[in-house]
Design brief:
6 strands, 4 helices, globular, single chain, 6-stranded antiparallel sheet
Length: 165
């Protein structure tokens, strides 16, 4: 499976000053260290592939895989920035949301015709080149804490691979 997340971190004050320091933080700390902790050398971690600071918001795109899923990396990033920026710049994250979350999987069981999968928050399911893409939208902090994404992933695995956790 692979995952692509578009999320927003909302801060307590303007964070446009991050545009100057974020490239170094992302390159040296987040992608090379924070998103690789606990992984073996040959395992692939998540990657913060795009970011933009605007006003109180930091817009991010995170790509992940089976070893570190994008929604897990999003929470790790939030916690890391709270710790780092809170100490150095007196900045706090006041809210966060996952706007779009695309989950790609190559199923071993493929249904013919329309794919049905009923979960709140699932906005779209597409089949292309023997790969299923499931798009989730507007996932709240409460849903992340309640392991909502994991519940959807378990349902997807049962439906498309025949595996149960």
């Amino acid at each position: 499976m692979r995952f692509v997340l578009e999320g927003i971190l909302k801060f307590n004050r303007d964070i446009e000053f991050l545009e100057h320091i974020l490239p170094e933080i992302v390159a040296k700390e987040v992608n090379m260290d924070i998103f690789r902790r606990g992984l073996r050398r040959n395992q692939e971690g998540a990657r913060l592939s795009h970011w933009r600071a605007s006003g109180l918001n930091l817009f991010v795109t995170i790509e992940g895989g089976d070893n570190l899923r994008a929604h897990e990396a999003f929470v790790i990033l939030k916690n890391y920035l709270v710790e780092k920026l809170g100490k150095e710049h007196n900045v706090k994250v006041t809210n966060f949301v996952i706007r779009n979350y695309d989950i790609y999987l190559k199923p071993s069981l493929m249904s013919r015709g329309k794919i049905e999968f009923k979960y709140p928050g699932v906005k779209e399911i597409r089949l292309k080149n023997n790969e299923v893409m499931v798009r989730l939208q507007d996932i709240s902090p409460e849903q992340i804490e309640d392991r909502y994404v994991e519940k959807i992933l378990k349902g997807l695995q049962e439906k498309f691979t025949g595996q149960t956790s």
